[in-house]
Write a structure and sequence with these properties.
heterodimer, A: 478 residues, alpha/beta, Rossmann fold, 6-stranded parallel beta sheet, 4-stranded mixed beta sheet, 23 helices, 10 strands, 53% helix, 10% strand, B: 205 residues, 5 helices, 22% helix, binds iron/sulfur cluster
């Protein structure tokens, strides 16, 4: 695997490969069930969790519906705090701005805080082309980067790797990137973490330029917030002379007190902790403390396209907690790589089509179908994104985008469903045909999905027929 | 070609044409707790300890002895405005480089707020806590929290804090669960967090 998502096979093909990998499925099942249990426990501690979710959703929704005002305000307050604000329409513009800042300081390397947005824009690759090495400093990101691999989970990107694989990566790759792994490296997590500490400390101590994203940006006060666990974030945000933060325009919240529901919702939903070990906040430049040159790049890259979609807009509320991944039966079996994006799982299945548009890329068009529509993702989402509804709407948009051309199998399926569901008489007719359809599917249409799991036998009698015959179960079911 | 700023703002305007801001003001639910409630301090101590930090409660008179006992061998640095006397400590004057800080074993700071519900200590880096780097690079962080600084939950802390100041919210020592979800303390930040909870100085009997 090479370190790019470009050219990934469409979801069903990628999923079939992943399903065949039993080690991967084991690692994933262990990870998702562990995090799920932790989350459930700490969420249950909060008596007014539902109200808190509503408040969290409202904070983000208000900011999104008033986005122009909030962005202009954020620019004003950041500037007043001594930061320099840049705007970037797309990935190329954002990357060029970051590269330009690094070059202005003659930096040949930068240290990075884990951030989804810099992965989304391919910043590391873009900087490499300019001769600037971008070092990931989060342990999982380091594992992914040294292994020339791709992240597979929003929160724990190297979750598909086990300890023996990680030891091998550190042994064979650390030396070329800086301080090599010690000779007596074992596969104990504590020993591996200690090797990463030594390897990265050398980089932190000499870094001139740090790069980050932000979890939240407060318009009222010009404050950026980064939530993390390891302290690598604090290192990158504090020790370099220059700090550049790439911030998606959807990260803005209006007021300082809006951070309250967000900081109560995020850690419990994400790592299943009451609070994550470290949260850093900074409002531009603090004289004598931390970087004395601070830049903020406000990035669109498809966000305004998503904003224009009235159903899909709510996906921009996402705070990247990853709770929806951990409850998703599809993600649990296929893993993150199958989604072909830095945003995997249920949120990835809607966010990618929303950011990039449908109808021109088979990989993206396949994503809204990567779901069983079970609704578990909506249940856990701390900002109440109704992912199932958006999935259905995105499927319809994929179908519409292909209207006129050669219809795709899934498009035919959706059109068929819409036609049938409109008229109940047609539904009962179709139910009677299901047995035939299943046989047909088994014989001629082993789709990727059915190729990897068993198709249930069609019942001998349709639900409607059963209801009529038994009066909904009141008569003898013989 | 228009500049990026005008174009993005124009796209935002166009995307939202016809939508209105929800006038319903939804604020987060919160219970109001009395300040300096002894039960809150107990909860704070319990929750901080939950993260595998070292937590001790002591009287104001005992504080200096307890700190001395908690210090590892090696140099110790203190912020310029620390109100507690630490013998032989280096007082940070803001000139020590990160590489120099890396040779220092421990740091002693005060705090701004303690949050009971989440077991969080908030530093806002005033002179009693010092600049961010000194509580980050040394491997042991000894942090003194006064009982009257403990609040119930996140909203109480947000209400007290000054957004114009840099802040570090600390909940236990640095930790990672990136390798098979096994929790390991201390990747990059201080591996030992030692919290001393003490009554406010003005009630020393
Ligand atoms: S969609 Fe919701 S649950 Fe999923 S990552 Fe975003 S905020 Fe978390």
């Amino acid at each position: 695997m090479t370190g790019t998502f470009v050219g990934m096979p469409v979801f069903p093909e990628a999923a079939r490969e992943a399903l065949a990998d039993s080690q991967l499925r084991h690692n994933l099942a262990h990870a998702t069930s562990t995090i799920r249990a932790k989350r459930a426990k700490v969420v249950a501690e909060v008596p007014d969790w539902e109200e808190l979710r509503l408040a969290g959703a409202a904070v983000k929704e208000r900011a999104l519906l008033d986005l122009e005002t909030q962005l202009v305000r954020l620019e004003e307050t950041l500037t007043a705090n001594g930061a320099t604000v840049h705007w970037a329409r797309d990935a190329a513009e954002a990357n060029a701005i970051v590269a330009g800042i690094a070059k202005a300081h003659a930096a040949t390397e930068v240290v990075k805080v884990k951030s989804m947005v810099t992965q989304e824009i391919g910043l590391n690759e873009a900087l490499a082309e300019e001769g600037i090495a971008a070092w990931e400093t989060d342990l999982a990101e380091l594992i992914v980067q040294l292994g020339d691999d791709l992240p597979s989970h929003i929160l724990v990107p190297a979750i598909h790797r086990n300890r023996a694989e990680i030891r091998d990566i550190f042994r064979s790759k650390m030396g070329a990137a800086g301080r090599p792994a010690p000779d007596d490296l074992t596969d104990e997590p504590a020993v591996l973490a200690a090797a990463a500490r030594e390897h990265l400390r050398e980089k932190f101590l000499r870094a001139k330029v740090g790069v980050s994203g932000a979890n939240f940006a407060v318009a009222e006060t010009g404050t950026l917030v980064v939530v993390e666990s390891e302290g690598n974030g604090r290192m990158c945000l504090t020790l370099p002379d220059v700090l550049v933060s790439v911030v998606g325009i959807e990260k803005v919240v209006a007021r300082w007190e809006d951070l309250d529901p967000m900081l109560r919702l995020l850690p419990r939903s994400s790592t299943g902790e009451r609070m994550n070990p470290y949260t850093s906040m900074w409002s531009g430049i603090a004289p004598g403390d931390g970087p004395q040159e601070v830049h903020v790049v406000l990035l669109d890259n498809g966000r305004t396209r998503a904003l224009a979609d009235e159903v899909g807009r709510q996906a921009l509320r996402c705070i990247r907690c990853s709770a929806c991944l951990n409850v998703c039966p599809v993600y649990e079996r296929t893993g993150g790589h199958a989604y072909g994006s830095v945003y995997p799982g249920p949120i990835g299945a809607i966010l990618n089509p929303l950011l990039k548009g449908v109808g021109h890329d088979d990989q993206i068009d396949s994503l809204p179908y990567a779901s069983s529509l079970c609704g578990a993702c909506f249940e856990v989402c701390p900002v109440r994104i109704d992912i199932p509804s958006v999935l259905v709407d995105q499927r319809a948009q994929v179908v519409d985008a292909h209207r006129g051309g050669v219809p795709k199998p899934e498009a035919m399926a959706m059109k068929g469903a819409a036609y049938v569901l409109k008229r109940s008489r047609r539904l009962s007719a179709l139910e009677r045909l299901t047995g035939l359809g299943m046989r047909f599917a088994r014989r001629f249409g082993p789709t990727a999905w059915t190729g990897a799991r068993d198709l249930p036998d069609a019942p001998g009698e349709s639900f409607r027929d059963w209801w009529q015959r038994t009066d909904g179960g009141r008569k003898d079911d013989a | 070609m228009t500049d990026a700023r005008s174009e993005i703002l124009a796209r935002v305007r166009e995307a939202l044409a016809g939508s209105t801001v929800d006038p319903v003001e939804t604020s987060a639910p919160r219970e109001v707790h009395p300040v300096a409630n002894p039960e809150l301090v107990d909860l704070f101590a319990e929750r901080v300890a939950d993260y595998r930090a070292v937590v001790e409660r002591c009287s104001a008179e005992d504080l200096e002895d307890r700190i001395a006992a908690a210090l590892p061998t090696g140099q110790v640095i203190v912020p310029p405005g620390l109100s507690i006397r630490i013998p032989d400590a280096i007082v940070d004057d803001g000139t020590l480089t990160a590489a120099r800080l890396d040779l220092i074993a421990a740091v002693v700071t005060e705090a701004r707020v303690g949050i009971a519900e989440t077991g969080t200590i908030v530093l806002d880096h005033t002179p009693d806590q010092g600049r961010r780097a000194i509580s980050l690079v040394p491997d042991t962080h000894i942090c003194v929290v006064r009982e009257d600084q403990v609040v119930a939950d996140v909203p109480d802390a947000i209400a007290l804090l000054d957004p114009s100041r840099p802040q570090t919210w600390i909940s236990g020592p640095s930790a990672t669960s990136d390798i098979e979800l096994d929790r390991v303390e201390g990747v990059h930040g201080p591996r030992t967090l030692h919290v001393l909870i003490t009554p406010p100085r003005d009630v020393i009997s």
